[in-house]
Specification:
The chain has about 325 residues and is mostly helical. It has two domains: about 210 residues, HUPs (Rossmann fold, 3-Layer(aba) Sandwich); about 80 residues, Tyrosyl-Transfer RNA Synthetase, CATH 1.10.240.10. It has 13 helices and five strands. Helix 7 packs across helix 8 and helix 9 packs antiparallel against helix 12. The structure holds tryptophan. The site of tryptophan has 12 residues, from strand 1 and helix 7.
């Protein structure tokens, strides 16, 4: 608890281009949750170097992502928006927690298996201990809730196990976090293969709507979206492509699936796709212009980065000091 509010932590990586899936599936929900919780939203750059990054490009992408958090509507005065690498406690706690995590547990992580298959030439120890760093992120702030995608649930489960293990040895040091899975927009699928999640690393550019796409590109990509030959705008399992478009439209407009079905009853896919494309373009345009404005204002952005890193450092230090004391490190002379 901070000021009687429950604590929320989440983070995103600044690799690849951000997509509509990131916005509707994650950021939009983060904004909704930000009134109710004391929120820490990190750009988790330490995690990103488990895969090789071009330094200049990486620096810019991380900055773009941080600015996007703000452009999406997260007030940086109320929410702690910061680069993970600016707060030393993440790496420090991660080391301690790694001594409370078993090789067998990390070996079971499906994301490690997937990523090591994908980066067979660089299966580094960081890729393996990635979930421990994620546990440190969360536990460092005595987090109550963690909004995550389903693909991260296994990591969160491990976080809880590590925290419980530590607490059973040293007493109640860590709050045990709960996952928070948003209802709408939790899974925006690829426009080219609706059985796959819309991903920032998809090789087919038509599969994803990027947050930087202009209006014409967005409308064109929706025109090309894979549907079916059933010629009805209905949300059901036999029509995954159309259902995905309904979900996107519903997430953008707030209309229920039934209302969307009614709205397009008797209309062709052409009309429907155009409406979805235009709606998405209308939502992204103001987001893009706010984003550009924020990035232009260096003094403003620098101020936010500095203040929020200090705030995160302050809260994380409280937990870190406690942990250091519990495990038996000698106190630093200050
Ligand atoms: N591993 C998460 C992802 O790739 C990002 C992440 C890092 C995260 N630390 C976190 C998410 C802590 C939630 C909480 O999506």
């Amino acid at each position: 608890m901070i000021d009687n509010k429950k604590v929320l932590f989440s983070g995103m990586q600044a690799t690849g281009n951000l997509t509509l899936g990131n916005y509707l599936g994650a950021l939009k929900n983060w904004v909704k949750l930000s009134d109710e919780y004391e929120c820490f939203y990190s750009v988790v750059d330490l995690h990103s170097i488990t895969v090789r990054q071009d330094p200049a490009e990486f620096r810019q992408k991380a900055k773009n992502l941080l600015a996007l958090y703000i452009a999406a509507g997260l007030d940086p005065e109320k929410n702690c928006i910061y680069y993970q690498s600016h707060v030393s406690g993440h790496a420090e706690l991660s080391w301690i927690l790694s001594c409370f995590t078993y090789m067998g547990e990390l070996n079971r992580m499906t994301q490690f298996k997937d990523k090591s298959a994908k980066h067979a030439d660089n299966i580094n120890a960081g890729l393996f201990t990635y979930p421990v760093l994620m546990a440190a992120d969360i536990l460092l702030y005595q987090t109550d809730v963690v909004p995550v995608g389903i693909d991260q649930l296994q990591h969160l489960e491990l976080t809880r196990d590590i925290a419980q293990r530590f607490n059973s040895v040293y007493g109640d040091v860590f709050t045990i976090p709960e996952p928070f899975i948003g209802k709408t927009g939790a899974k925006i699928m690829s426009l080219q293969d609706p059985s796959k999640k819309m991903s920032k690393s998809d090789e087919n550019p038509n599969a994803s709507i990027y947050l930087t796409d202009d209006r014409d590109t967005i409308i064109r990509k929706f025109k090309r979206a894979v549907t079916d030959s059933m010629a009805q705008v209905k949300h059901n399992e036999e029509q995954p492509g159309v259902s995905n478009l309904i979900e996107i439209y519903s997430a953008c407009t707030g209309k229920s699936f039934e209302d969307v079905e009614k709205e397009f009853d008797g209309k062709g896919y052409g009309d429907f796709k155009l409406a979805v494309g235009e709606t998405v373009a209308d939502i992204l345009a103001p987001l893009q212009s706010r984003h550009a404005d924020i990035l232009k204002d260096k003094a403003y952005l620098d101020g936010i980065v500095k203040n929020n890193a200090e705030k995160a450092q302050y809260f994380s230090n409280k937990t870190l000091r406690k942990v250091q004391k519990k495990v038996g490190f000698n106190e630093k002379i200050r």
